[in-house]
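Let us work through a complete example step by step.
Step 1: write down the sequence.
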Amino acid sequence: MTKLHLLHPATFALDGGAMFGIIPKPLWEKKIKPDELNRIPMALRVMLVQTKNKNILIDTGIGHYHGEKFENQFNIETKHQGLIGSLKNVGLDPKDITDIILTHLHFDHVGGLTERKGESLFPDATLHLHQKHYEYGLNPTLRDSGSFQSDYFKPLIEKAKEQNLVHFLIEDSGVILEDEGTQIEYRISFGHTPYMVHPIVAGHIYMADLVPMSHHVHVPWVMGYDIEPGVTTVFKEKFYEMITERKLKMVFEHDLDTWGGTLKIDDKGRYVLDEAGVAQREPSQQLI
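Step 2: predict the structure and record it as tokens.
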């Protein structure tokens, strides 16, 4: 039987204007209030998938190796002793994790792989990530280079490759892994970053940074961090068509108050969250 948990190892904050791109502040601040530095509070939500033989993490959060200046800049607040503590709350240690699916290699998604340079918290886990995204992450544009801390993730991935513990995804969609009747599929998106992976399992889809919060469901509401915002809107519509057709529940990685929800089309023909399907239960609890 498949079990899904949401883990919440930390929170952080990013500039509200950057998170909403061209959307004017008088509009977005009605949904989420910024602090005195114009930062908005955000979750670092990790999904744990437990199958008969596997414990699988989807993303790993921001990690704890950044230093005081970085942590103050991004207002990082650790919960439950970070990812290790969050795993302990569900009866697991890092050594119990068999697989880690990395949606992309930005520091707030991959940082939890390590606590110090060159040392993995999960040395026995198979890493699943898109090969072309890995190649991009090693050579990003100047615009988004600050999001990739390759000095930390590259040694870990290269060591895992030597140990045959890396599964590179190479297609635009397919199956990441299967175990005793449980299948984790994926689709990729572009716009935020090339070849971002979105796992689909047990009726849920992990939205990563395509739709980071419930506040970004409306198609034009796209982050300023996206390297191709117009492309993001195209992929949001493509994904929404698939999500509504398959009746999937979206999981929002960065929304503090709303961890997930289902979609509907309103009377103006727009995709919106279905109020009946909004999920606000506290994280670190079992979903199914």
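Step 3: interpret the result. Helices lie at 16-20, 25-28, 68-73, 82-89, 107-110, 131-138, 150-162, 229-246.
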